[in-house]
Fold each of these.
Amino acid sequence: DAGVIQSPRHEVTEMGQEVTLRCKPISGHNSLFWYRQTMMRGLELLIYFNNNVPIDDSGMPEDRFSAKMPNASFSTLKIQPSEPRDSAVYFCASSSSGPSGNTIYFGEGSWLTVV
Amino acid sequence: GNSVTQMEGPVTLSEEAFLTINCTYTATGYPSLFWYVQYPGEGLQLLLKATKADDKGSNKGFEATYRKETTSFHLEKGSVQVSDSAVYFCALSPSGYSTLTFGKGTMLLVSP
């Protein structure tokens, strides 16, 4: 089975530019998560979708960040305009609830640098 | 609220040494508990999990036991290898929820 697929793996962009990160969850999974990892804050949950519907977006830093999930196999995280403090690794993850408990599987991350 | 506390690193060991990374949690109800591992330049991989009290998760020689009385889920390995060098994250998923709350991670460095 293919895991969670993220693109791009690495992105370097200038301050003020729009950044779009993409994610394809594991087929059959009904929950999708966007996490951000920085040295200062560790791993933070940005937003969580269930059955394509945003359930909890309280971790989205500010209005510059937006996320969509138009169908069960695709999600985007957009930053517009980007700022240097947005530099981080952004992870997409997915899971499928089951009797053995929720196990969340992570993609390899999108490493974003804003200069 | 829910939180996870891990011992600060880095933990530096020689090959074949015994490893313990402490993890304690705060949560209501009966969360599921996880250990994830992140190798340099890579994403997080599930290492092991436990879904109820007294469960023991194990994988690749690593073990952790869900201790509700001490709200702990310490990670252990009897003999570490250089290839175990990575950052280890303890996490919980509250009962009835799908999200994960992570600890800050503990870096493990194993020297030959």
Note: The radius of gyration of chain B is 13 Å.
Amino acid sequence: SQQGEEDPQALSIQEGENATMNCSYKTSINNLQWYRQNSGRGLVHLILIRSNEREKHSGRLRVTLDTSKKSSSLLITASRAADTASYFCATDQGSNYKLTFGKGTLLTVNP
Amino acid sequence: EAQVTQNPRYLITVTGKKLTVTCSQNMNHEYMSWYRQDPGLGLRQIYYSMNVEVTDKGDVPEGYKVSRKEKRNFPLILESPSPNQTSLYFCASSPLGRSYGYTFGSGTRLTVV
């Protein structure tokens, strides 16, 4: 069952610009995570934010979580061509450590 | 290097011919899981395991089997593959606990003809 839904489905920006992706989910969560996937490759864990946290930073990444709106956003600042990838949010909402993934946002950063 | 290793990377097989996709992790993680990724459907969990000899069904377990005889290995078995199992498969592992993300393997692209 789909839990997270990313928005937009695709985003194209110029190098140096900021990129913002959003994720909405339906049920209460233990934590929310963001992953990156380069074309056809394995997913790479970027950042995890717990349900009692509101904001988290890691390098050029900033994640916010609003549990009242059941939404999260991922901001990538000063984007680089190497940031071109699909980005997925994933929610941990049960007792079995299962992650439920959204369908992703395809980010293209043009040099 | 800490990693999840899947083999093979690519596989083309015929309907009904049993196959196994191997997955091994070197991080002593308790939790391991298999996902399949399909266009328009995203990633869906097939099976997971919280420890040795403990496995359970995910969202799309039909047509698949798994085993967890050792902590590091979690093979995915397709006893009688069908064309609808053509997909990109990922193995993932993590420690148990709410503070950890998954480490994914590089994927196995399976085509069943």
Note: The mean pLDDT of chain B is 96.
